Amino acid sequence: MVLLILTRAGFEDARQRIAPDADAIWVGGDVLSPAEAADLRKSGINLTVFSARLDRSDLWWALDVVAEHHPGSVLWVENSAPQRDEVLDGSPLRRHSEAIDFPPNQRPRAINFYRVGEAFGEFSNFAPYPIRLKERTWPTSEHYFQAQKFAGTPDEEAVRSCKTAMAAAKMGRERSRPLRPDWETVKNGVMHEAVLAKFEQHAKLRDLLLSTGDALIIEHTRNDPYWGDGGDGSGRNMLGHILMKVRSQLAGG
Known about the structure:
253 residues; Tetracycline Repressor, domain 2; 9 helices; 9 strands
C-alpha cells in the first residue's frame, strides 16, 4: 500500500492507523519538518517529500507521479477539504484506483475537450492559433510540438511547413524519420512550452482558459491514453494537466 498525504492532520491519521503497513509514503512539502522526515527514514519508512506543498488542485499531477513510481500498487489518498486543515466526513484517507472520489457536493467541475469545432476546442493543439517560438512562427501548437521531435534537422522545418495540424501530426509520428534520442525525457517540457506560448500570445485564449477557474480540464478521447484520458478515465491526461498548470501560471499562481 502507498500513501499520498497532503496535510499534517492527514499524516497524523495515517501514521496512527495504517502507516506501519505502507510500502511507501509520499507527503507534501509542508507536512513534515526536515528532522521528522529524517527520523522516519531512519526507522525504515520509504518516505518521499515533494519539493512544494500540495493543494487539491495538485492531486492529479501528484497521483501521476506516485503511480509512475509504484505501478500496480494500492493507493490511499488523503481526501482534503477546500481548507487544508479540514477533513471530509471525518475520514481523511480513502482508497484510490484511478480518480479521487470527492463527495458529490465537493467534486470539482470538469471540462472535457477534444475536437476543434466543439466546446473548448480552442484547447486542442489542432486549433488554428499560430505561436511564435525559436524566432519562427508555427501555424499551430501541434506544428511546434511535432517539429521538436526533429529539432535541429531539416525535418523540423518540414513539419513546420505542413499545411494543416493533422499533416504535421502525421509527419511527426512517422518513425521513418530519426527521432531525437532524448524525446521521451523532454516531450512534456516541449508540450508545456507550446501551450504556454499559445495562451500567452492570444488574449482571447488566455481569457477563456482563466474563465475555467479551478475546473478539471480533460482531453477526453479514447485515441490517446497519455495526453488524453483514454476515453474512460484510465489515461494520464497529460495535456489536461499542462493546461491547468498554464492556467495557474497565467493567474499568477
